[in-house]
Structure formats: C-alpha cells, structure tokens
Amino acid sequence: MTDLLHTLPAFPTAPYTHLLPSLERRRVSTTDLLTLDAADVAKRAQLPVADVRRLAGDVLEALRKQLGVPDSRDGDGSLRKSGPELADKWAAISTLDPVLDVALGGGIPTGYVTEITGESGAGKTQVLLTLLLSAQLPPPHGLSRNALYISTEAPLPTSRLTGLLASHPILSSNPQKPSLSNILSISTADLESQDHILHYQVPVAISRHGVGLVVMDSVAANYRAEFAQNAGGRSATLARRSASLQRLGAHLRSLARTQNVAVVVANQVSDRFETTDTPSSSLAPTPLHPVEALTLDHQQRWFSGWGLPSSSNANLKTPALGHTWTLQLDARIALLKTAVYAAPRDGDDGGEQGGWTREMSLVFSPWSSPSVTRFEITRAGVRGTVDPPRASA
Fold first, then answer.
1. Cα radius of gyration (the chain)
2. Do 219 and 266 meet the contact criterion of CB atoms below 8 Å apart?
3. Do 79 and 69 contact (CB within 8 A), yes or no?
C-alpha cells in the first residue's frame, strides 16, 4: 500500500508492519481497503480478517480527523451545521482594508491552505507582511495569535515590517499593538530541510508559541532547485516532483485543519504563451470549437488567475509547479499588474510608462465566489480601490 502514506503522511504504520507487505504484493490500495469488504481483502492478501478490519477502521478514523469529519459513533455524525454554528467557528485574518476584505469574503480564514501568487513587484510580500502583523490583532481584524514565517529565499524583511507598524493606522493605534517579537522566522535552504521543518518543527512551534498563521515564502524555490536536473529522464523527474507536491499539500491541509491555523504560501509565476492563433492580448470571448474548449490553454484561465475576460491584465502568466500543485490548494489569490503608459508626445512613437495598475483576483475558494479588485501598494500596506469587486466568471 504505497499510496497509504501519500494519502495519510502521519499515519502510524508500526502496528501493521506484518500486514502492509502482503497488501502491497497483492496491489491493495487505500481505496480498496476502505470500499471492499474486509473478508474479500483478507482473502485476496491471505491475512486475518480481524487484522484487516482493524487496519481499515484506523485508516478511516485518520481520514475523518484529517478532514474534520466527526465520527458517527459520537452521536454527531451529521455534516449539516446551522448558520450561527458556522459563524461562531469562522475566524479570519484581515488585510486591514475593507475593500479587499469584502473581495476575499472576509479575509484569510483559518483551516485552509491559501496561495498568493504573482510576478515580481505585484505586491505578494506587502500582503504577506500585513497578514503577519494583523494575525496578532484581536478579532475582527486578527486571531490574537502569533505568526510563523518560513523563508526559502530571502530572510524576513524586518525593516519593512517596522515601517508597516509605524505607518498603518490600525496597527499603530490598536491597544494590542503587534510586535516583531511575535513573528517566528525559520529559513530553509533545500527540500530536505524544508520537509523536516514542516513535519517536526512547525507543529511544535504552533502548540508552544500559540501560532495562528503559517506563511511559506515561497513554495516553488526549493522545488525548482531540487528538480532542475532531469536525473533519470524528464518523465521520472516530473513523477517524483508530483509525488512530493502531493505529500506537501496533504501535510499542509492536515496542519491547517487539525491545528486550526491559516496556512498561506507564496508562489512564483512564469510566462504563458497561447498555442492558438488568437492574439493573447485579446480578452474578448470568441466562439470555440468543442475540442478547443477542452484544451488546457482555454481552461487554465479559471484556475490560474490570468486570462479572464473580467481582468484588464493581458500579460498571461501561469503559477509555478503546475496543475498538480493547484489541486493541493483550498484557495488561490492572484496578484496581477499591468503597465500604464502616458499619452505619446508629438513626434513620439509611444508614450512612456507612467506606473502600474494592480488587481487582486480571488481565483477560487470554498468560502467566497471569485472576484477581481483593483488595489495599490502604499507604505501602510495594501489598499483597495473604492470600486466594488467585479465577478471573475
């Protein structure tokens, strides 16, 4: 059962070491164990029925805990909850801007893995730093809990955090003023140390220091370095990377739900080139052949964040780590920027660049509908425009 640890990375296999080899030889998957009758599985693997039934029960219980589903034996097996019950459990970290909070459906909630992706200069760092500080505020702006920053590239920019503390009116005037000493910082230089930190140090830090927000900046850096060489062939490299990303996603989701923390990961992007004959700058919807509607070029605009008709950004990008990583996320927030050019002077071929237009796109999430909202970066953090968010679909 090689897929058992992919599905449940923290599952205790020690009590079942006498069962797993036989199940592996008979190609019994985790799905088979949970869906087939225990007697059939035991006969197929030539194992005692009682042991197989006990293993299946423990796997099912571990899945329930990972997903936050109560055991029906406890008398509260129903997934239905009333509005007040759900509202009481809702906890989110504010961006400290009412326009952006409305666009995000209330902020960044606990219990989910949220990705913030965008090109360099789009505003990822400013958003992350704001969340690190606002998480320390009492509700409704924060969680009254500390934050953990995991860096795979540059160290924590403390000078920018100090500037935010002094410039933002909510941060500087709140009686429970956030502090840099409440932000734990860990650096990881490679994938091996990253896995060790996430599996061993982070759970201890959450329980010992009262952490409510875990930020990873960025998720792609160590994977790009680790799998840059196609050792054993490109297909083998992609397979190993996909398996590693699935384990990472499963662990982060489990961490967010079991510890009730908000996990936010920053991600890089790369340029995307359309394979069709239609110019990439044309965002107007055009009739598609049924086969074209099934292509990745057409469909990825709804999960990548770039290429939607509701956005004014024509520079197509795609988040790093591919579709495998996208499937590990609960929510994706794309930060888009478009150059703004001044009107050309007499005799000039074109105008000079006069700045940037930035948009925050909630691409997908389980708590709010997609939207696109313009924002700007200031010394006091990020600030949304007064225009209401536009639906992205």
1. 24
2. yes
3. yes
Number of H helices, E strands in the chain: 17, 14
Is residue 182 a contact partner of residue 146, using CB atoms and an 8 Å limit?
Answer: yes
Separation CA 86–CA 73 (nearest Å): 22
Residue 282 has, within 13 A of its CA and on its CB side, a CA count of 9
Residue type, 324: T
How does pLDDT run across 265-318, given as a tens digit for each residue? 999 998 876 655 444 444 445 555 555 677 777 777 778 887 776 555 557 888
CA distance 166 to 21: 60
Query: Distance between CA 214 and CA 13 in Å, rounded?
Result: 28
Q: Tell me the torsion sign for CA atoms 30, 34, 37, 39.
A: positive
Angle (CA) 249 331 128, round 5°: 90
User: Do the beta carbons of residue 258 and residue 65 sit within 8 Å?
Assistant: yes
Residue 97 neighbours by CB distance under 10 Å:
22
Low-confidence ranges of the chain (pLDDT < 50): 73, 75-79, 277-284, 388
